[in-house]
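In this section we walk through a basic example: taking a raw amino acid sequence and producing a predicted 3D structure, encoded as discrete structure tokens. The instruction is simple. Fold the sequence below.
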Amino acid sequence: MGKPSPQDRNLTWHYHEVTRDDRQKILGHRGATIWFTGLSGSGKSTVADAVASRLHDMGVLTAILDGDNIRHGLNSDLGFSPEDRTENIRRISEVAKLFTSFGVVNLLAFISPYRAGRDGARKIQEEGDFFEVYVKVPLDVAEDRDPKGLYRKARAGEIKSFTGIDAPYEEPENPELVLDTSKLSPGESAERVIAMLRQKGVIPAE
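The resulting token sequence is shown next.
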């Protein structure tokens, strides 16, 4: 049996007087979702922080949605099975869509290992609102960094279904941007993201 539609549940979408365009006129920039994906230890959160800091200094309203932080609250009921990973990304995709509609440049740092989940996150947003950034790093570099000690635990069998070890990571096929953080510093990576946002018209040109 399929999932019931909103109509089946007697739900009606409510349109509000203040529109997205109204909010963006006040802010002076567009809302957008910047989705950082990559292995644990690739530098997703570090780069997202660097981008947010630069945008904040430019007067751009931002929000960071980080994988670990979201699992402390909104998705605290989910584990790391394929089904739970899929639901984790589905929920945060809807949150990202809301932030974008409010005119916020939201920066998401999620391993998001399945291509279908990331493609689904893109699909629910309007054209030009979603930007996939692949934070690419060789597995051995991510393991050497291992900032949370997770790879060590995974290799020891203490963590099961760990992405890159005994669970898959499906690389993006057509991301808007690829950042090799084994060669780029967080600052250099952030500048490339900022340049992309300017080129795409999300934030004003210099």
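Looking at the output, two observations stand out. The radius of gyration is 18 Å. The longest helix spans residues 82-101. In the next section we compare this with other chains.
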